[in-house]
From TrEMBL:
<feature type="domain" description="Endonuclease/exonuclease/phosphatase">
    <location>
        <begin position="26"/>
        <end position="337"/>
    </location>
</feature>
<dbReference type="InterPro" id="IPR005135">
    <property type="entry name" value="Endo/exonuclease/phosphatase"/>
</dbReference>
<dbReference type="GO" id="GO:0003824">
    <property type="term" value="F:catalytic activity"/>
</dbReference>
<feature type="signal peptide">
    <location>
        <begin position="1"/>
        <end position="20"/>
    </location>
</feature>
<protein>
    <recommendedName>
        <fullName>Endonuclease/exonuclease/phosphatase domain-containing protein</fullName>
    </recommendedName>
</protein>
<dbReference type="InterPro" id="IPR036691">
    <property type="entry name" value="Endo/exonu/phosph_ase_sf"/>
</dbReference>
<keyword id="KW-0732">Signal</keyword>
<dbReference type="Pfam" id="PF19580">
    <property type="entry name" value="Exo_endo_phos_3"/>
</dbReference>
């Protein structure tokens, strides 16, 4: 009888331990460099990305792009698929559905959060989430309307709310800020304006709940120490966690150490940022991460070696020249623990 009782207690203890097992979730962001279909949308400037366009973007090239991207996304975490993936430079929902249906991604069973942006080229932001890990609640947008340039159309910021794990609500913002075309200094005001709109949205959330768990991801076309990110959005590398509302940029220290996600004329730029509220760092009972969590996925096989021997992102196109690579950006990612 005593042996049976001990056996039952042991089984119960094992079951309890398994239920308390720590879980890890990978959160990723990837600028996928113009994931277009081959159809001509008369309402956008997508003519180049058609079989007849100057890029000769055929069905075969589109399919290769999908296979390439699915290979990258399925490899970021060697143990699991990323639970959440932010994307930018996607044309529409159709290309997202094609992407998650690829052989290397379909078993992940991703859901899609996406809205069409007014961007003239027709590119949008989107979020993929594993349905068995992230309970989608809602999504909306922060529309960007420049008061001094009413005809300037850019990407909306996508805001997604959901529950990751057992009961932790997350607010995720996926961004693709205006480019540096025309020069970094001349175009800076546009990125500053977008940062201001995002900061307003974050402040509203934190007014309701100072401990709101917030993740901001995206291609800012600015680096962590530029005015838009550090001053306006107030995302820094200050490791004081006493204020749960402060924002911490997980990529800041990597930038300081000379790392980057985009290589321009031999120089590394950290344009792809991952920012979390301090409530995700100071907290240890629910979802949490740490100051060193930010990573760049730059496996050799997604790289191109320059004549100087530098491994840079192996892109799909450089101007009109087709290389058949993955993207001109590296993905970035971090882990959340529960």
């Amino acid at each position: 009888m005593l042996k049976k009782l001990l056996f039952v207690l042991m089984v119960a203890l094992i079951a309890f331990s398994c239920s308390k097992e720590k879980k890890e979730y990978t959160i990723a962001f990837y600028n996928v460099e113009n994931l277009f279909d081959t159809l001509n949308d008369p309402n956008t400037r997508d003519d180049d990305f058609t079989p007849e366009g100057k890029l000769e973007y055929t069905a075969a090239r589109y399919q290769k792009k999908l296979v390439n991207l699915s290979s990258v996304l399925s490899s970021i975490d060697k143990n699991n698929f990323p639970a959440i993936i932010g994307l930018c430079e996607v044309e529409n929902r159709s290309v997202l559905e094609a992407l998650i249906s690829q052989e290397k991604l379909k078993s992940a069973d991703y859901g899609i959060a996406h809205t069409e942006s007014p961007d003239g080229r027709g590119i949008d932001c989107a979020l993929l989430y594993q349905k068995n890990k992230f309970k989608y609640l809602s999504h909306d947008i922060i529309g960007i309307h420049f008061p001094d340039e009413p005809n300037y159309k850019t990407r909306d910021i996508l805001h997604v709310e959901g529950i990751l794990g057992s009961n932790d609500t997350l607010h995720l913002f996926v961004n693709h800020w205006p480019s540096r075309i025309g020069g970094t200094e001349k175009s800076e005001k546009n990125r500053v304006f977008v940062a201001e709109q995002l900061k307003i949205a974050v402040d509203k959330l934190q007014e309701k709940n100072p401990n709101a768990k917030i993740i901001i991801m995206g291609d800012f076309n600015d680096e962590p120490n530029n005015k838009s990110a550090e001053e306006i959005l107030a995302a820094t590398n200050n490791k004081d966690t006493s204020n749960p509302e402060a924002l911490y940029n997980l990529m800041y220290d990597l930038k300081i150490n000379g790392k980057g996600t985009y290589n321009y004329k031999g120089d590394w730029n950290m344009l792809d940022n991952l920012i979390v509220s301090n409530s995700l760092i100071s907290n240890t009972k629910g979802l949490h991460t740490n100051h060193q969590a930010g990573k760049i996925y730059n496996a050799d096989w997604i790289c191109h070696k320059t004549p100087k021997g530098i491994l840079v992102p192996n892109r799909t196109y450089a101007g009109p020249k087709y290389f058949g690579g993955y993207s001109d950006h590296f993905p970035v990612y971090f882990q959340l623990n529960n």
